[in-house]
Design goal:
Elements: H1 3-13, H2 19-33, H3 39-46, H4 51-59, H5 68-79, H6 83-100, H7 106-109, H8 118-121, H9 128-153, E1 157-160, E2 167-170, H10 172-175
Antiparallel strand pairs: 1-2
Helix pairs in contact: 1-2, 1-6, 2-4, 2-5, 5-6
């Protein structure tokens, strides 16, 4: 994944207004992670971020670490949003960082994090809800073209019988 794609994917997936908003979300989440995982691992993760995000996060001071709720509160405070929104932004950011980063990823850092934070750090986009959306996006055009062709090949008309509530289907050959 290209470095600029990280912010684009976070922006799209979290339904954010623009690239700057996505950058602030990534900065807040990665900064909140600083007090939770070992410093060397955290630096390895931030070294892979786009320059603007990595530089802003590197200047920040570490926060007193805690668990999942402390991370979400820190993200909510930095972004001035409610905690449920901050939790969603954190999940989307970790999901995209796990797809974006090579070597040190939030999922690999989960082992050194508190137990309640591990599921959040291990977020993946390959869950069943996302799989079907991806499949429809990839197969959408050929399937619609194939469906169009089958309708052109065997046209069907629908007639409703007066004595029945269910429509009867017939082809032009059956009507003759």
């Amino acid at each position: 994944m290209h470095r600029d794609d990280l912010l684009s994917h976070v922006r799209t997936r979290a339904r954010l207004h623009g690239r700057g908003h996505a950058q602030r979300v990534v900065e807040a989440v990665v900064h909140g992670l600083r007090g939770v995982v070992p410093e060397a691992s955290w630096r390895g993760l931030t070294a892979q971020l786009p320059f603007a995000v990595g530089a802003a996060v590197a200047r920040a001071e570490p926060v007193g670490g805690g668990a999942c709720r402390a991370l979400i509160r820190d993200v909510a405070r930095r972004l001035n949003v409610a905690e449920p929104d901050a939790a969603f932004y954190a999940r989307v950011t970790f999901e995209q960082l796990n797809a974006f980063c090579q070597g040190i990823t939030p999922a690999r850092l989960a082992a050194s994090a508190p137990a309640d934070l591990r599921p959040l750090l291990s977020a993946r986009a390959e869950e069943s809800a996302h799989r079907s959306r991806r499949r429809l996006a990839t197969l959408g055009t050929p399937v619609s073209a194939l469906t169009l062709r089958t309708h052109l090949a065997t046209p069907r008309t629908v007639t409703v019988r007066a004595d029945s509530k269910r429509p009867a289907r017939s082809t032009p050959a059956e009507r003759r």
